[in-house]
Amino acid sequence: MKIDLTGRKALITGGARGIGAAIAADLASCGAELLLLDREAEALQATVAELSGGGAAVRALVADITDPAATLAAVQAETAQSGPYLILVHNAGITRDNLLMRMTQEEWDLVMKVNLQPLFWLTKELVREMMRERWGRIIAISSVTGLMGNPGQTNYAATKAAVTGFVKSLAREVGSRGITVNAVAPGFIRTPMTEKLQGEQIDRLKDAIALRRLGEAQDIAHAVAFLASEQAAYVTGHVLNVSGGLYM
Ligand SMILES: NC(=O)c1ccc[n+]([C@@H]2O[C@H](COP(=O)([O-])OP(=O)(O)OC[C@H]3O[C@@H](n4cnc5c(N)ncnc54)[C@H](O)[C@@H]3O)[C@@H](O)[C@H]2O)c1
Q1: Which residue in the list 85, 156, 234, 247 is annotated as catalytic?
Q2: Would 95 be classed as within a structural domain?
Q3: What CATH number has the domain bearing residue 36?
Q4: What is the domain extent for residue 155?
Q5: Which atom of ligand 1 lies at the shortest distance from residue 160's CA?
Q6: Tens digit of each residue's pLDDT (9 = 90 or more) over 42-86
Q7: Into how many domains does the chain fold?
Q8: What is the pLDDT, as a whole number, of residue 183?
Q9: Residue pair 209/246 in contact by the 8 Å Cβ criterion
Q10: Collapsed DSSP state (helix, strand, coil) of residue 197
Q11: Residue 156 falls in the annotated catalytic set
């Protein structure tokens, strides 16, 4: 079985580094054309340059998704130029961890703005064309934290749990148009987001993971490539847990 995304265009948020960059590399290797959206201009240019150097068709869009109006305008300008994106991967995400008693309204709001809100306004923007084309793939990057909870992450877990309700509901709305809506829920993956974890913490974590290792960004990217593929045409409303058995 070979995944072939030739002729497909994918928009990936948070595509500059970490899991987003790995998803970009995988989808590009399957032949997809990409638009990588990120607020980190330098990291984004570096990732785009690396992928383009390998022969991929990749464009960069520097935008901050906490500003929906500006981001939507930029996305619309891109689609006017290059055509519609029928694969959407909402991957950008942040943490602002704190115990609930100490959590500020700003910490709560920012995590909502980055992790959850774009799922509404960006999906709404792209799904229109997917409906017209009678084909589409919407994939959200969730987290096992949204499935099992984690102290200090009420804000983050709330956004990731919300993804489950979102994909199941939208999957029922748009399934008749050949559009699938799924999520991937990573466990602990080695990326800049988790680089704060130290030796002893990592050892304790590994004890809780059936496969006894942290995941790699590629582990998540392979799951996303599958969900974006023709082979996954009958998979929708699903949250695929990719956690090495941390959660089961
Ligand atoms: N790393 C893990 O262990 C892990 C586990 C579970 C879920 N996840 C999820 O995977 C996704 C990617 O995580 P990662 O580990 O690669 O994180 P990361 O911090 O390495 O990368 C996130 C990317 O999103 C971009 N981004 C953040 N805020 C943005 C904004 N306002 N506008 C535009 N871009 C923005 C960042 O610039 C960065 O390039 C996130 O949704 C995260 O919640 C990660």
Answers
A1: 156
A2: yes
A3: 3.40.50.720
A4: 9-241
A5: 43
A6: 999 999 999 999 999 999 999 999 999 999 999 999 999 999 999
A7: 1
A8: 98
A9: yes
A10: coil
A11: yes
Q: Tens digits of per-residue pLDDT, 81-136?
A: 999 999 999 999 999 999 999 999 999 999 999 999 999 999 999 999 999 999 99
The binding-site residues of ligand 1, defined as CB within 6 angstroms of any ligand atom, are 14, 16-20, 38-40, 64-66, 91-94, 114, 141, 143, 186, 188-189, 191-194
pTM across the whole model: 0.98
Identify the three-state secondary structure at position 163. Answer: helix
Asked if residue 139 is part of any domain, the answer here is: yes
Q: Long-range contacts made by residues 60-66, C-beta under 8 angstroms, separation at least 24?
A: 60/35, 60/36, 61/35, 61/36, 61/37, 62/37, 62/38, 63/37, 63/38, 63/39, 64/39, 65/13, 65/37, 65/39, 65/92, 65/113, 65/114, 65/117, 65/118, 65/122, 66/110, 66/113, 66/114
What are the distances in angstroms from CA 68 to CA 72, 109, 157? Answer: 6, 14, 22
- Please tell me the distance from the alpha carbon of residue 59 to that of residue 7, in angstroms, as a whole number: 15
Compute the radius of gyration of the chain from its Cα atoms: 17
Quote the longest CA-to-CA distance of the chain: 52
